[in-house]
Amino acid sequence: MESVPQRLTILHTNDIHSHFETMSPIAAGISGLKAAAGEEAVLLVDIGDHMDRAAVETEGTMGQANIDIINLTGYDAVTIGNNEGLTFSPETLAVIFSGLQCPVVCCNFLDAATGEPPLWMKRHAIVEKNGIRIGITGATAAFTSFYALLGWDVRNPEEALREECRQLAQQADLVIILSHLGLPADKLLAERLEGVHAILGGHTHHMLEQPLMINGTAVCGAGKFGCYLGRLQFERPEPGVPFRLVSGECIELDQRLTEAVIAPAAALHLQQGQEALEETAAITGQELPLNLLGESPFGNLLAQAVRRFTGTRLSLVNTGQLLGPLPEGNITAGMLHALCPSPINSCVIRLKGRDIRTALLQSLREEFCTKPIFGYGFRGKVLGSLAADGLKILYDPAIIPYDNSIAVFVGEEPLEDDTEYEVGTLDMFTFRSGYESIANGRDPVYLVPHFLRDLLRIELQRPGSLEEAAAVRWESTAT
Questions:
Q1: Cα 268 to chain center, whole Å?
Q2: Which of 72, 131, 203, 427 is most buried, with most CB under 10 Å away?
Q3: 25: domain CATH number?
Q4: pLDDT at 222 over 90
């Protein structure tokens, strides 16, 4: 009697970034594909950055909204991205993932104190579907210095994955990697690791219409924000014979679709998040305007907040972190979240005067202020001008930028190009994003886990802060 071929469909999502509006269409698309598969095995996984604290649902519930949706959608395994690992404290992560109904797999993410994964995480898992044993491991991008500040030891992903894949190859029918490492890393892993059937990718938001086949491994990615669903289909003629890839694709999801359970759950979490963020953070007696092309009180307030929090002599921040003016009256946590949504931290660097001057000169140019910025935790739209605290800048708007058009003072002293200054600034600048000369700073010290909106809240509660923010830092010498 001829054997019936065994088939397995793998569905994968990545980098949804708390786009709750796409979660119902995702679930509807998954339900349709599961129905089409009939009795055949279907595995559903997510590759990290499902959570993003820019969303009210995630911020207001500290990630519980995402966990609820993952559970209701029926995922079989997930890994974590930097938006889970770096934007929540270890204690909060333990609470978040305690309610997850599927394993979190990641082999290069360890508790620095124990050298072992946290209790809510596994180095690998074996999931059985219709008698098919699927070995799953995962890895996340090694932002080592940032993770170390939170008590995590995030190790070289290739070395960790090699050991896990070796073990899984002896126990499972298929081996897959959930890789929140990015496409360049995934390609290298496919070249260097043996016995891996698929690397399901994320982090770099790549969308591969069909898998890249490298060394017999299918390298995949399904874009970002839940617009696509990745699908792989494997089969083998009979047990004991290796599985082979039959097809692979990314399916564009119809965003008009809704799913009966997920849609009302997402709406409820939005309401809960909004209610949680109604707490009063401060009460102001005046509006603070914002100007993305020059100086404004709200930009100055952010610079003050960073300088005081970092304890430095001067600070540099970009006004694009702020999405609108600060109104007068009752300022809630939700308002600060809406006005400053980016999960960005402050940091301290040692920066030479010439690099400070270069950045300030660039800030006078509209093409810098209006430059779109993507990634590095930034959730605004454009870079914006530079706001400073602890500096006085005299400039002539009639002179061409870079043509000795500014005089800069640190307190009462002229800025010296060859002198190093301790500067409070933003972590994204250290990645050469935006005002790139700031990345020339040495010895960065990142101050986690406080976000810029937390610093704004502290500064707003300081007596006299609004009056100080009205003081001019950029003074035109034009007559």
A1: 24
A2: 203
A3: 3.60.21.10
A4: yes
